[in-house]
Amino acid sequence: xxxxxxxxxxxxxxxxxxxxxxxxxxxxxxxxxxxxxxxxxxxxxxxxxxxxxxxxxxxxxxxxxxxxxx
Length: 70
Known about the structure:
By secondary structure, the protein is mostly helical. The protein has one domain (about 5-65). Helices cover about 65% and strands about 0% of the residues. The protein has four helices and no strands. It has helices at about 5-15, 20-30, 35-50, 55-65. Helix 2 (about 20-30) runs antiparallel to helix 3, helix 2 runs parallel beside helix 4 and helix 3 packs antiparallel against helix 4 (about 55-65). The longest helix has 14 residues, at about 35-50. The chain is globular. The two termini are about 25 Å apart.
């Protein structure tokens, strides 16, 4: 899991598989390791801490994946 874009580019160039932090949260919910409500709260907190990069579009995409109403 890497959120740093320059490092992600290097990893991609080397063929290293990557996921974003919010993708990991979705995977945790889907595997039963994290309740949906906690995921929602975490995603909104991440967005609140980094609204420049964690846009409403990213949040809504994750919410849709998790079946959370906006």
